Here is the input.
Amino acid sequence: MQARGDFSSDMLLGDSFASDWEVTPVIARDLIDRLTEHKALGAVPATELEWLIAHGAIRKLNTGEVLSTKGRPVEALHILLSGRTALFVDRGAGPSKFVEWREGDVGGMLPYSRMVTPPGDVIAMEPVEILSIPCAHFRAMTRECFEVTSILVHTMIDRARLFTSGELQNEKMISLGKLSAGLAHELNNPASAIERCSAMLEDRLEDSEEATRDLAAAALSDAQIAAVDAARRSCMAKQNQGVRSPLEQCDREEAIAEWLATHGLDTACAQILADTEVTFEALDLLAAAVEPPALNAVVQWTAAGCAVRNLTSRIQDSAMRISGLVTAVKGFTHMDQANVAEPVDLGLGLGNTVAVLKSKAHEKSVAVTLELEAGLPKVRGFAGELNQVWGNLIDNALDAVANGGRVDVLAMRESQGVVVRIVDDGPGIPAEVRDRIFDPFFTTKPLGHGTGLGLDIARRLVRHNDGRIDFESQPGRTEFRITLPIAII
Here is the structure.
């Protein structure tokens, strides 16, 4: 696999010489003074500047012309003499400016660079003049121009570091966007439930107050009050049969309405009673103890009271769901902790990651399982970085599987480390691209659905945490394995 880890902004000012660009022969006497004032190369010996001039050519571009095209080899060193250029990278929402160069910068192919092609197009933002040195002269340049070569190598290292930082930040923003979209979807359900239940609660409270007045006027005996309490307890019993289907709920409501009508009672509360766990046995006992018209007041009061309790319980459950999501996101990002290596609970981090990606799994009806070995030891690392690794890998797995697919997340101890395995039943990674999946900007996803940075950054973060990452893939099963060292506590 060809390494591309030093791919950076220092490599992105160039492309092969094109016949439709204006190329002007170099006139040494006009360029020496300009190069001695060049920000990057002005301090090198005059003899080396003369060498560059003797082996280069001038290119002139007008505003909007393309200097370098994505996917085409970069075949020259470029010394920007005047004007301004910028790299535009398409991340799916159209080209956006990633980095800019101005007069005094150096770019294109640099000595010892392993770059192959740029990730986007470099376009002249205003009239540009460039001194271009073809790559064919690099071997001689490193031999004849020591100071120039030294400056260019340091430039490559500095810009590689800057570019890597930009990659990481960009991928974090993309991950944050996905997380925000999923979180908004997840939060909308309990928030809507709270709003809906609060509005219904006001009506049920009015019903309860009215029923309470009617019940007080009924002057029930102790035996009758005991029967009312039994019916109320039946209403509030915990549901053991799971959630009823819409058809089952409709049948239950019709049955309760029929019972109420048979006993000469108002059927308006049939829907409310159907939402509770009240049994017909409890209703029959209530009817045997209390006769109309007091029975109607008793049923209305019982229904209203149960409805109020059900609504408050739903509000509480929804609020707890919101609180749980916030806790999961806080744990996923570790936004309240310093970025220092420490013992990390992988179970907690993996659980939080699965929680924040739950909405995406639901959209595709994907079953996501989390299996942790009992007594799993902590690892030594950076919790926030590891959670970003889990987020990238699980998110990729969810993208890979079909609707109704399966993603398994497992963690277990192996020898002196802990291994996290993320397995999906997707179509697998084609054999011809397996050597490239960790390359920056390489992606098998459709345009607009991937940046090609997730796996590259995941590998860097795993290495930063003294771990290793590898994978196996075949049709129907792809497994990524991350091995991390156990923390010594």
User: Anything to note?
Assistant: Confidence is low (pLDDT under 50) at residues 1-23, 446-452. The chain has three domains: 9-144, 182-321, 335-485. The chain has 13 helices and 16 strands.
